[in-house]
Design brief:
The chain has twelve helices and eleven strands. 50% of the residues lie in helices and 9% in strands. It is elongated. By secondary structure, it is mainly alpha-helical. The protein folds into four domains: 105 residues, no CATH class; 89 residues; 163 residues, Autophagy protein 6/Beclin 1 (Actin-binding Protein, T-fimbrin, domain 1, Orthogonal Bundle); 62 residues, no CATH class. A hairpin with a 6-residue loop joins strand 9 and strand 10. Helix 6 packs parallel to helix 9. The strands form four sheets. Strands 3-5-4 form a three-stranded antiparallel beta sheet, with no helix packed on it. It has a three-stranded antiparallel beta sheet with strand order 6-7-8, with helices on one face.
Length: 482
């Protein structure tokens, strides 16, 4: 612009072309004083392969009023534009500068004096043509007058019938309102019917509850009367129940005391937290290699048998059941399953066998034996925590924790009750197949108990038990088992 020191528009660079086309100019950021100017300065720079810098090719100062109109589109041009011509695409068409279009010069101006001196006589309008033009004008004026009269008549008719038109509109509005009211009435009727149905259902439910409450009140009244009749026996029953609990607790103490005698757990001299069970040393889980595998497996068999008997007498089932079989005892885990390879899966077969872990290390994978020992220690921990509420500090100490379990189980007030006299039941001679099977199981259990009690010849109790079994073999209780 001529009045601006800085350019208001800088075009982009168009490469490799003789007829460049630049993008549109955005005047949104320009002030009104800029957009109302009528003069524009256009400078064009070029750059070729020979020139390493830009050179000005053209500078044109033009007035917008002097632009020449070429048409709506460039496609309508019949002749080509001259070289270095600038074309402006405006909103109403295409324009160009006058100086660059010498071939598009306007026709020469002919003065009026030259035209008046011409001897050529131009024809004028005839009388008929003027008469037809006059009649056409009269017809147009009549048509305009008729249109105005019709418009006035229509306006007058509308003004006279305005009340009827308003009433008609009111009737339509009233009909729409009546339809809305009718729809609302039906909706409210449905809601009312639903509310009545729910009220009836709730009333029936309340009546049913009243009947049930009446029956329950009568039953409670009857029970209260019965309780009042039997209140005289309540103290005796409480005393009997308390005495039964004490007797059960004392019997459990006696059984645990017998277990301590059958499976004595003794400390090893000059060793901390080292114990033996039936003279079999069993190291803790972190020092399993200090004893032979046979000794450890035999000691673990004793521990598993003690846990099985304690769970039975104390009324606390083991989370991980044990199967005591001497030095080949096992423990079962029904919760988790260790990952095994294809060889081990083929060896153990069923899922139950995979969940059964050995309490011996000979001929089995080491990790299965260590996991079995961990499950055994968990059984001891759970018996202490759930049965007696005692917290275990380190579950790896197998015999110390078991010794503490027996110590807590035998603790109590008063003297231990005496063992009740009785013979070995279940060995029925000359009975059926079921009786023979029961006698076989009972005899094997009795002999197993004697062997577990001890096999040393100097123990007089073992000899007495064997003699008692021999004496009672001919006089067994033959009463049927219930």
């Amino acid at each position: 612009m001529l009045t601006h020191p800085e350019p208001i528009y800088v075009s982009e660079v168009v490469n490799h072309t003789m007829n460049p086309t630049f993008r549109s100019i955005d005047y949104d950021n320009c002030a009104p004083g800029t957009t109302r100017l009528d003069e524009v300065t256009v400078r064009v720079w070029i750059k070729s392969v020979k020139w390493h810098s830009w050179r000005q090719l053209l500078e044109v100062v033009l007035k917008l009023r002097e632009l020449q109109y070429l048409g709506k589109h460039l496609e309508n041009l019949e002749r080509p534009l001259p070289a270095n011509a600038m074309v402006f695409h405006l909103s109403d068409g295409v324009y160009t500068t006058f100086t660059s279009l010498t071939q598009y010069a306007p026709p020469p101006f002919v003065p009026i004096t030259a035209r008046s001196n011409s001897t050529r006589i131009l024809p004028s309008s005839s009388f008929d043509a003027l008469l037809r033009l006059s009649k056409l004008d009269d017809s147009i004026q009549d048509a305009l007058a008729t249109r105005n009269k019709i418009a006035a008549d229509l306006e007058e008719i509308l003004e006279e019938n305005r009340t009827a038109i308003v009433d008609r509109d009111r009737v339509a509005a009233a009909e729409d309102r009546l339809k809305t009211i009718e729809y609302a009435k039906k909706t409210v009727a449905k809601q009312l019917e639903k509310a009545r149905t729910q009220t009836a259902e709730k009333r029936a439910s309340l009546n049913n509850r009243r009947d049930l409450m009446s029956k329950d009140t009568a039953q409670n009244k009857t029970q209260a009367e019965n309780m009042q009749d039997g209140q005289s026996d309540a103290p005796e029953m409480r005393t009997s129940l308390s005495q039964s609990k004490k007797d059960v607790q004392n019997q459990r103490r006696r059984v645990c005391e017998d277990l301590q005698k059958v499976y004595p757990i003794q400390p090893i001299k000059n060793k901390t937290l080292a114990f033996t069970i039936r003279d079999l040393p069993l190291p803790n889980s972190e020092d399993l290699d200090s004893s032979s595998p046979e000794t450890i497996s035999a000691a673990l068999g004793c521990v598993s048998h003690v846990l099985q008997l304690l769970s039975f007498y104390l009324g606390h089932p083991l989370v991980y059941p044990v199967t005591p079989r001497g030095s080949t005892s096992t423990i079962y885990d029904s919760i988790s399953l260790l990952k095994t390879n294809a060889r081990e899966a083929q060896r153990y077969g069923a899922d139950k066998n995979l969940r059964t872990y050995p309490l011996f290390s000979r001929g089995v994978p080491r990790f299965r034996f260590e996991y079995a020992l961990f499950l055994l220690n968990k059984d001891i921990q759970l018996l202490l925590e759930t049965g007696f509420g005692v917290r275990v500090l380190d579950i790896r100490h197998t015999l110390p924790n078991l010794k503490y379990l027996l110590y807590v189980a035998t603790a109590g007030e008063g003297e231990l009750p005496a063992r009740k006299a009785g013979g070995i039941r279940g060995l029925v001679r000359n009975g059926g197949a079921g009786s023979r099977a029961a006698s076989s199981d009972s005899s094997s259990s009795a002999l197993s108990g004697i062997l577990w009690h001890g096999g040393r010849p100097e123990d007089g109790r073992n000899k007495g038990a064997v003699d008692s079994l021999r004496r009672n073999a001919g006089s067994l209780d033959r009463r049927p088992r219930t």
